[in-house]
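Spend some time on this chain, tokens included, and walk me through the fold:

. . .
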Amino acid sequence: MKIALDPTPFHHSHSLLEFPQLVADLGYKYMQLTPHPDFIPFFNHPKADDALVRQLKNACTDAGIEIASVLPVLRWSGPDEDAREAAVRYWKRAIQITVDLGVRQINTEFNGRPERAEESERAFYRSMEELLPIIEREDLHVAIDPHPDDFVEQGVAALRVIRGVNSPNIGMVYVASHTFHMQDDPEAIMQAAGNRLRVVHVSDTLNHHASHGLRYITNPPGNAVRVHQHLRLGDGDVNWDEFFGGLSENGFLDRDDSVMVSSVFAEDDNAREVSRYQLNTIKEYVSSVQ
């Protein structure tokens, strides 16, 4: 298993090419590349040309770290057909960038709209018809997160959609911060996922269902909002013994191709200290269940 750092908290203090050395300085051997304005921004065409891709790859070599996964977030499942077609074009460039970096793991989100779930599912499979042959040709693995406010949000339901693609190259991301939106029991999701579970994100969150649904109050009542956090491990309500125990039973911790990502976004002011804390605490939990 690869333990990687998501450098999102450092996007405003460091340049893209400074990330590899930063990740190494914080004690990590692996990095996950998330949406960045100079790389693959949210919802738009990738901005990295071949020269920048080579520079980034060289920076990783110089720092002695590797890129474990690339995370594009694009509107490939949106019910707007023009946006979907554009997203497929952007995906093709994102795939080429990933291949040129020497990375084999991509993780992403379903996207689409929950209030138009049937249309969004059709759009997802339509995009897959065009992208899957490329993904399989390049021998990449794409893991998908049922992100809050996507067309599919529940864990087991997401696995059904993934299974419907009918390809071993498509799997699942389990984001601990989304635990209370996925509704299904975490261990049941992990068990159902089997070796399709290829990426997990480690950050804590508060259970928005607590206090009879009154932990968070929005006005007017009934707003279609999705509340979650990406907190330091231990600062929320995720059951970490259950989380790491489920990963152990799944076999995730023993697979060379699995990726565990520290993805804390709520601690920018002390992101260095939190990143080191996350790495040490993750290692302690992993040791306790192996």
